[in-house]
Amino acid sequence: MNAVPPLLDHLVLATPDLVTTVADFALRTGVTPAPGGAHPGLGTRNHLVGLGGRSYLEIIGPDPEQPEPAVPRPFGISRLTGPRTLTWAISPPDLESAIRTARARGYDPGPVRPMSRRTPDGTVLRWRLTDADHAHPSGLVPFLIDWGDSRHPTDSGLPVTPLLEVAATVPDPAQARGPLAALGTGLALTPGPIALSFTVDTPNGPVSFG
Q1: At 14, is the secondary structure helix, strand, or coil?
Q2: What sign results for the dihedral spanned by CA atoms 92, 159, 122, 76?
Q3: Do the beta carbons of residue 159 and residue 172 sit within 8 Å?
Q4: Closest by Cα among 70, 60, 71 to 16
Q5: Positive/negative CA dihedral, 131, 136, 139, 144
Q6: What is the pTM for the complete model shown?
Q7: Quick check: 90 and 26 in contact, CB under 8 A?
Q8: What span, in angstroms and rounded, lies between the C-alpha atoms of 126 and 160?
């Protein structure tokens, strides 16, 4: 199994306190995440770190500058008591084709919906992704994303901590391997409580996050 999943677009590290989690990441790694921007209407904003190539880490949390959203914040952020790596995304060459293939192989990644984010310089990025509400409940099977004509986050000069490994534990690894294979990707899985972790190379040496 590859240490880095094929087609990886980004990892999602969610937190109830974005400022504190970004500061902790900077302290542990020696690399300060860059402000990504706000998600209008969802009550969240993010900071980003490149992982090498066209992959990145998204640190996402509540946005105090937005009013309380009318819908639940994504990734169950409002229920978190601390930072946690919750899920990940892949970017296949053709989103619709990847969805059709996955369904033919027995896994439905869900419908596609549009999203957007306003960057600090005022640019609006738009993308499409499969609805996380339909994803595998473990969070270990990725959602799919298509950036279309928007600039990819890694094209904006992000600070980089090269990704060394992504791994996970789950009570029944075989149950997750089928959906992963249906999406054309994979993840190192071992038996245990549901958990997703990753390790990055940094000026302070390898650092792991769960």
Answers
A1: strand
A2: positive
A3: no
A4: 60
A5: negative
A6: 0.94
A7: no
A8: 23
* Residue 105 half-sphere exposure toward CB, CA atoms < 13 A: 16
pLDDT of residue 29: 98
**How far apart are the C-alpha atoms of 93 and 197, rounded to whole Å?**
25
Q: Which residues contact 37 (CB under 8 A, 6 or more apart)?
A: 45, 46, 117, 118, 119, 120, 125
Q: Interhelix angle for 95-104 vs 173-182, to 10°?
A: 130
Q: Which residues face 89 on adjacent strands? A: 10, 143
Q: Tens-digit pLDDT profile for the chain (210 aa)? A: 568 999 999 999 999 999 999 999 999 999 999 999 999 889 999 999 999 999 999 999 999 999 998 888 988 898 999 999 999 999 999 999 999 999 999 999 999 999 888 888 888 888 999 986 666 777 899 999 999 988 899 998 999 999 999 999 999 999 899 999 999 999 999 999 999 999 999 999 999 999
Which residue in 10, 48, 17 sits closest to 198, CA to CA? 10
What is the greatest pairwise CA distance in the chain?
Answer: 45
Residues 6+ apart with CB under 8 A from 199: 163, 164, 165, 206, 207, 208, 209
d(CA 125, CA 70): 22
Q: Which position has the token pair 């978190």?
A: 80
Contact (CB, 8 A) for 197 and 167: yes
